[in-house]
Amino acid sequence: MSFTQKHLLGIEGLAQSAILEILDKAEKYADLNLKTHKRVDVLAGLTQINMFFENSTRTQASFELAGKRLGADVMNMQLQGSSIKKGETLVDTALTLNAMRPDLLVVRHPHSGAVDLLAQKVNCSVINAGDGQHEHPTQALLDALTIRRAKGRLHRLNIAICGDIAHSRVARSNLLLLGKMENRIRLIGPPTLMPSQISEFGVEVYHDMLAGLKDVDVVMMLRLQKERMDGGFIPSEREYFQRYGLDFKKLSHAKDDAIVMHPGPMNRGVEIDGDIADDVTRSVIQEQVEMGVAVRMAIMELLSKNYSTKHKKLLS
Ligand code: NCD
Asked: What pLDDT digit, counting tens, does each position of 159-207 carry?
């Protein structure tokens, strides 16, 4: 076993072998998810709490389904309002939930580092479902599985990540994962949306889409993270689409069999032409959603094994 961690907080600490173990296990769940009867009892008797301090539709639904298909008791908590408004701190909320003895917490939070902090305060396993601009490890893993299934491999590919790199936890986790797998990564976007320490990543940076997309195997588009901008990053959405939105003309510079990805939610006509998003010969966006459930099931199974071994050691 390569994946021996109690938590999944980021891609940063994961070895290549652990990533492959998760993806291989997820393949098994991708097959299960095609069957009529999708339920197994891998997490039977365990309690999973999804704590979302930031809006989410697909990620929360995906974690909820994954837990239910594995037989866990799943509870969803929307925490944007309620106790947060009453002034309770993140740590107090965590300690309250910890006292209810969950086995797994899935946490999304608008601040980078908040999920790591929470993991230090609780006894159970914690999965980072996205913390600020920092990491979104399950998204990078589901993207990796989607790429591997479409391209037949996960190494030596030319991959372009395009758009709002600066504010994107998806870009950061993908850079880390795809880099560990020895791919050639290009970042494409306006200078205002590139992180300041970009030279540390050892990637090629382009501000021109046509040059950046030349001969790539994978085109990964990102959403403009307007909620993390305080104005002035792009001239107008119309101009942004003209220069950085993916349309068929720009896509024609990539390889003929290049795939198109987007983590969702998409702004059609801003980051991506709606017709490309719906073109099943190029777009793997629905496959990404499908692989999301499988990857999350795999991670939860692996974490539950690590958690129960540690738990047994504590009790003996
Ligand atoms: C991503 C996120 O929340 O970081 N979406 C997701 O997980 N489905 C990307 C985004 O919101 O742009």
From this structure: 999 999 999 999 999 999 999 999 999 999 999 999 988 777 789 999 9
CA gap 34, 174 in Å, rounded: 27
The residues lining ligand 1, judged by C-beta closer than 6 Å to any ligand atom, are 58-59, 130, 136, 139, 169-170, 223, 225, 263-264
E strand or H helix at 108, and its extent?
Answer: strand 104-109
127 phi and psi, to 5 degrees? -115, 130
109: closest CA among 83, 86, 135?
Answer: 135
Could you say which of 25, 108, 167, 172 is catalytic? Answer: 108
Model's pTM, two decimal places?
A: 0.95
Q: Beta partners for 46?
A: none
Residue 136 among the catalytic residues = yes
How confident is the model over 52-101, as pLDDT tens digits?
A: 999 898 999 999 999 999 999 999 988 876 555 555 688 888 888 899 99
CA distance 147 to 159: 10
